[in-house]
Amino acid sequence: MIHRSFRAIVAMTVAVSFVCGLGTASLADPGPGALSVPNADPYPSTYTPFAGRTVLIKNATLLTAAGPVIKGGSILLQNGKIAALGTNVSGPPDALVIDGTGKYVTPGIIDVHSHMGDYAVPGTFSNSDGNEATNPNTANVWAEHSVWPQDPEFPRALEGGVTTVQILPGSANLIGGRSAVLKVVPSRTVQGMKFPGAKYGLKMACGENPKRVYAQRGPSTRMGNMAGWRAAWIAAEHYRRTWDAYTAAPKGEPPARDLGLETLAEALRGNINVHMHCYRADEMAQVIDMSKEFGYHVTAFHHAVEAYKIGDLLAKNNITAVMWADWGGFKMEALDSVRANIGLVDAAGARATIHSDDGVGVQHLNQEVAKAMVAANRAGLQVDEAKAIQWMTINPAYSLGLQAKIGSLEVGKNADIVLWSGDPFSIYTRVEKTWIDGAMLFDATDPRAQWRTDFELGYVNTGARK
Amino acid sequence: MIRRALITASLTLSVALVPLLARAETVAIVGGTVYPVSGPRIASGTVILTDGRISAVGANVAVPKGARIIDARGKIVTPGLIAAATQLGLSEVGGERSTNNAGSHGPIAAAFKPWYGFFSESAYIAPTREDGVTTVGVVPSGGFISGQIAMMDLDRGTATDMLLRAPVAMSASLRSGRFDGMYDDETAGTPNTAGNEIDNGPNSRGEAFGRLHALLEDVRYYAKHRTGYDNGNLRGLATSRDDLEALIPVANGIEPLVLQADREDDINWALRFARDERIRLIIAGGAEAWKIAPRIAAAHVPVLAGAMNNLPTSFDTLNQRHENLAILRKAGVDIVIVGNTGGGDEAIFNVRNIRYEAGNAVVAGLSHDEALRAITLAPATVFGVADKVGSLTIGKEANVIVWDGDPFEFATRAEHVFVRGHEIVERSRQDQLLDRYLHLPPTRN
């Protein structure tokens, strides 16, 4: 309980993306030993799509997250992409045809707040790799260096229709480190799960967690939290100027590298998305001012239990709120949780997003969205399924900067698809099949083909013993 | 009216346990699909609430003169739901120790009665009621012998008004002390000011069962030699007099012992232990109970388990799975559905979600009727309050819910919530926050 609430408390990540080829053109090949420049990619993705075949799902209800619900719709998955969808789609003769009668198809679910792999199960001491709680500023750590690909939470998330996740450091620290954006696929290495081309995120955390964890050495107050961030940004500004000057005219010995400042400088340059754990409305408003003070953009506030109080401010500043459907009460800053939070943020014009922060919750994000949708409608807001589906697909895709690749059913996008037994917002509905890049990686009807992690072998046996 | 009744009740403790019944109005809930739970579904039934109790249930029931009539056509009528394992009212803000009354001190806290700390003004009671939960089990936390369990009706009033029956069981855990995952490295096993090592409870399963046996032996010995105890003539005993007294009904097989146990072997040893000690056992948690379902059924030991968690969160829950409840029930085990979604929220802030836990159990193979029973009559029976709550039965407290659809579905709302015959209509703290911020910027602050 303590452990879990700590995770919940420590939920802000800042992600920085160092992706080859995305950077400024002025940067030449940094060369060996000179990675302290934007767009270095020292731990590159080795992901390649799994083998898939052409699939035509016919006569299903399509929740596209990109427009109205398509009833009696068909969708064609070909070469890892969505090749066609609509009410009049046919496939080539070799296509696997799936009768979707009574079923629903949605984009793969995206959970931008997860600790799978860095707080893996079983929750042993050895598996506790989510919080580098040794300094309030650990901008230097990268979550991917903690992620255990054999965490049994991964296959269960896939079975819940989750295809892309952002793994964050915990929220003990003011600045927690870089996130990792992963595909939910079996792999021996985390590099094999990394989403090609995804920007990094930077996890930061407001409020109670840092001031509790560092009460003895500081920060021990919310004003101490603010001072800690500002000091870090001031140092990062200097570092950025120094390195930008050097890369513009490389002469002589390069400036000294600093891992943490590299990450922060990349956030200032806009190459890393800032994901900040923040519960209270007034603290979010302070952080927005701070982002203007230093000229960076907060991509998303996570947990954002009080986002509904400042939905207008979030909308004006183009900030996503990443929220639970109904968690609250476990600490003072979570006291004002209301179930209409997501709906109210959406109605205010900000990008509303569900998240789990939890290995059970990640398996039924559709149910969490259902609760939020019902609460919104009960509050008098008009939220239909075409809108609600966006809270777990295209909206989180935006906060990762991956909206052009995933998050909706549109021609040309990655074929990350979920086939549901019925309406995904009914409690009785379950995932039947999940595809990532056109490869069917989960099929409820074929238990033998289901992904079992190394850890589960010989330990987890769902067959009865006696 | 209600307020006056509360004041009256609070003046005399002797009437506090049934304070509001007499003043409740007569209500006829007419035409709904009635799930009495204690009997078959009634397609178009009537339920009459009189003086806070259920006075009639059936297809052909006359509506008393002057009764308030609720048209329940197209609706579903059930007993109020029971969430049997919660800390509602015991901890308002988990992160703030000043609000926490769930735990006692030391590994053996048999005398601990957590309901003395029940916060009747908790902001979570109203949302819990709004979702049709009218009775909760209030369970202490921490330690080896954690303390006593109470059943509370979510009525208005003070804790004494809400108390339904206490104690209903004794709570214990095999996992305390050094090998509990929540082990506190900073204090456990270190010397106290007297130079003795602080006892944090058993450090292994073998020690836990050994100490439990020794404790029960001491209780029985003490019970036979109270005079000797008073005269100071007894051998040393494992715990204080208050703890020994509290454990007498457990040792005598009258009050059940709720043992938190997840691992298959733990559950199996517990069955044997309970048989040898002749105590009444209830398994809580029970992650791997499904693996030995027939043995549990044969021992007539009920299991409290959830439906949401399928993770090997520890080496005790490697084979935790969604189908646990369905397999147990099929084998004939008495099951009670409790929240196990994880995160800790299910015991306090989201007690209200017990109906979704039941719905998910249905997806995993439990029948709808069995799932409803497992959050109504089953917990009432297991915790000895079925004479008062748990079904729509004549004479029971009028804890009745009128739903606008299937109680397990997200879209369904509890349209009418009756507790002891009173309909409770309220704007919870959460509702008031919503009202304030529905339109931005808020017009008042």
- For the record, the count of structural domains of chain B works out to 2
Name of the CATH architecture of the domain at 2-22 and 35-42 and 109-404 in chain A: Alpha-Beta Barrel
| Greatest interface by residues involved | A-B, 65 and 55 residues
Radius of gyration of chain A: 22 Å
Class of secondary structure makeup of chain B: alpha/beta
Please state the second-level CATH architecture of the largest domain in chain B: Alpha-Beta Barrel
Distance between the amino and carboxyl termini of chain A: 33 Å
Describe this structure in words.
The complex is a heterodimer of chains A (466) and B (445). Chain A has 466 residues and is of the alpha/beta class. Chain A is built from 11 helices and 18 strands. In chain A, strands 2, 3, 4, 5, 6, 16, 17 and 18 form an 8-stranded mixed sheet that branches. In chain A, strands 1, 9, 11, 12, 13, 14 and 15 form a 7-stranded mixed sheet that branches. In chain A, strands 7-8-10 form a 3-stranded mixed sheet, sandwiched between helices. In chain A, strand 7 (109-114), helix 2 (153-159) and strand 8 form a beta-alpha-beta unit. In chain A, helix 4 (222-248) crosses helix 5 (259-269) and helix 4 runs parallel beside helix 6 (281-294). The two termini of chain A are 33 Å apart. Residues 1-34 of chain A have low confidence and may be disordered. Chain B has 445 residues and is an alpha/beta fold. Chain B is built from 13 helices and 16 strands. In chain B, strands 1, 2, 3, 4, 5, 14, 15 and 16 form an 8-stranded mixed sheet that branches. Classes of the chains: A alpha/beta (466), B alpha/beta (445).
